[in-house]
Amino acid sequence: AKEMGRNNFQFFSEDMNHSILEHLALEKELKEAIQRNQFTLVFQPKVSLFDYSTTGVETLIRWEHPEKGLITPDHFIPVAEETGQIIDIGNWVLEQACRQISSLLREGILPPTAKVAVNLSAKQFTDPNLVQHIRTVLEITKIPPQCLELEITESTLMEDVETAIAIMQEIKSTGVAIAIDDFGTGYSSLSYIKRFPIDVLKVDRSFVMDIPDDKNDMAITAAVIAMAHKLSMNVVAEGVETREQLQFLRQNNCDEGQGYLFSRPLSLGQLHRFLIENKAR
Ligand code: C2E
Ligand code: CA
Ligand code: CA
Ligand code: CA
Predict the structure, then answer these.
(1) Helix count and strand count (H, E) for the chain
(2) Which residues lie closer than 8 Å to 217 by C-beta, 6 or more apart?
(3) Which of 63, 124, 140, 207 could be bridged to 71 by S-S, CB 3.0 to 4.6 A?
(4) How high does pLDDT run on average in the chain?
């Protein structure tokens, strides 16, 4: 039994070493990525389902790794979240997004009603310096607060509901809007949803994906849109890829859509062209 125990331990330990080493390597690489400016931003348009005008963009981070090429956030945001590096990365994203979009707003290529959405991770959301950082960024980039929207996932908000409400109210006091991201995937109780000061509800892509084949997803999507409207929230459908999905969303009065049907995430230059072409139409 002793032998077995030792073997088991060794096996377990090797396995752990492997993941710890990988984790440490990534942590070190992330540190360098910040210092060496390897992060870039792309912007995915959100469009009105009423007239297809561009209502805003969601900011999405990319990592231009010198050897591995372009890395999507799913591969490093969770590690950055664990190591705490997400605070620096997230602050950088917020400031850069506002800087880059502020020129489009000034040139009138983006209307003053447009919103730049930035994703906030759970660690950032509870960072005591968050609201001060938001205020500073608004000041230095001169972007009007009503042009900024923060996307917070449902699960982040449910970790500690009372604290979440207080932080959200503080954010709202800056004039910045709040969107609840990935709605339907967490475990939020509807009794909390009405207590959160939420401006926008984003229906998760997993519900939109199987429209029109999955009748249950269609029922849930329609019900979520109706509920959000009763609570005076705007509804954005994520991951709209097909005409059928678009038609269903329009029939159910969904306000906005985001997805490959309208546009993939774009570089700032591409976004510039997208907006000008869209305007001409
Ligand atoms: P998310 O916030 O739900 O962002 C939407 C994701 O769906 C993006 O993936 C986007 O490229 C993708 N997407 C958009 N339209 C479609 C579509 O029609 N079909 C499909 N299949 N996918 C679509 P991305 O850029 O890989 O980002 C993944 C996740 O990483 C994001 O999910 C978000 O949770 C996180 N993330 C991205 N940027 C940041 C950031 O700056 N800060 C933080 N904290 N998280 C970020
Ligand atoms: Ca998001
Ligand atoms: Ca989302
Ligand atoms: Ca999602």
Answers:
(1) 12, 9
(2) 206, 207, 208, 209, 210, 211
(3) 63
(4) 91
